[in-house]
Amino acid sequence: MSRRVSRRRFLQAASFVSAAAVAGLPAWFVEESRSYGQTARPTTSPNERPRVALIGCGGRGMALSKEAKPFADVVAVCDVDEKHAANGAYEHQGATQYDDFRKAIAHKGLDAVLCATPDHWHTLVNLHAMRQGKDVYSEKPLTLTIDEGKHVVQTSRQTGRILQTGSQQRSDDRFRLACELVRNGRVGRLKQVLVAIPAGPGPKERGPFKATAVPEELDWEMWQGQTPEHEYVPQRCHFTFRYWYDYSGGTVTDWGAHHNDIALWGMGQERSGPSTIEAKPLSEMVPGGYTAYSDYRIVYTWPNGVEHVCYSERYDSGTGASIAQPAPGETHHGVKFVGSDGWIFVTRGKIEASDPDLLKQELPASAERLYVSRNHMGNFIDCLRTRKPPIAEAEIGHRSVSVCHLGNIALRVGRKLTWDPKAEAFVGDDEAQRYVARTMRKPWSYDAV
To answer: Where are the alpha helices (DSSP H) in 300-370?
Structure first.
């Protein structure tokens, strides 16, 4: 094969090096990463483009479908809010519009599903899709409960379907670099992992809220699905659904599913769980308002003795955008690995260390290397073709959000809990164990899909 580099490839490589330098990545890592190439390349060939359905056409769903556009054709869109569904159909001209996910998944010739519903619908949509022979890209947090995660993992294995969890930080060079360095002892013996995530709504935003008439375009009964029936309250729906325990887990699961996933990856514990959990709410919620705690501190102890602290910070908004400058010694959202020989901090767009040399020194050829993905959606599309597990497959997504669910359970019961990560059960605490699963409102159940 010729070693001659085309002008196009040269410019692509130069562009990558320039972007990587701006991101603060060390030269050795930049050069190494160039050899991995791209995860998947956009294509216009109909034979190479999977046909996918978008389930959930809200803000995240629309963003997700645009990420898929270079690689796949969105041929079906579905939402129980008619306006959202219409937006999806407008964005993807020619796509068939549905109001029931089961009908959308039955669309002729469908290869895969993009699941971007509110959290409480993820599991039933994903189970149905896999049982119907479809591969799935599911937004995080993957599940509403730990028990749901067990079913998702089991179904993915039984059906052989690909499931990619939307934990896209795994496909970011900075996060992979941080985790590779930590797992190879760059900070010495790992002692502590600090996970800072944006806090929930402030005191004046927490309610109480009043019920109103259901919007004409919304099927409120279907939107609620398996969850307890309630009068329609605008704040329960769409973006702010994430602040109610009925549908989600506050920022503990919303942002925690991202950063705790990286914490587990760096610790090498992505298929396990902590041994103890202790949590404390740092503010009170308002009766008649949001139910998920806004401010908190959660401390996990892992079987190897590492302390993992997840806490809320108020320097960033719920979308992750900066709204204030951190106080001395504090940080924006991100993950800090603290070891006997220094620390490494990583967040979106930045990686830094207690000593710059911790990043600059190249890892030896014998070092442990992690799964390389340069594009999260592209990795999913690649795996549809190769049938190899994606970078954030079902068990990875399940274990990452399980850590978040454990934190929320500790917040709700108000005491230190002991967890058996192999059995995925609490030790000697019946009340805590009851939160591992939730009763689904009829007619919905695992068997109903």
So the answer is: 357-360
Task: Delimit the domains of the chain by residue range.
Answer: 172-366+395-448
Sheet containing 73-78: which strands, arranged edge to edge?
96-98, 73-78, 51-55, 112-115, 135-138, 163-165
Q: Which residues contact 96 (CB under 8 A, 6 or more apart)?
A: 75, 76, 77, 89, 104, 107
Q: Which CATH number fits domain 172-366+395-448: 3.40.50.1460, 3.20.20.360, 3.30.360.10, 3.90.1010.10?
A: 3.30.360.10
93 or 10, which is more confident: 93
Give strand pairing partners of 420.
425
pTM: 0.94
Tokens of 126: 């994903």
Burial of 365 (0-12, 13-18, 19+ CB in 10 A): exposed
> pLDDT tens for residues 299-318?
999 999 999 999 999 999 98
- Beta carbons of 237 and 283 less than 8 angstroms apart: no
C-alpha dist (Å) from residue 176 to 25, 263, 355, 370, 391: 11, 11, 19, 7, 11
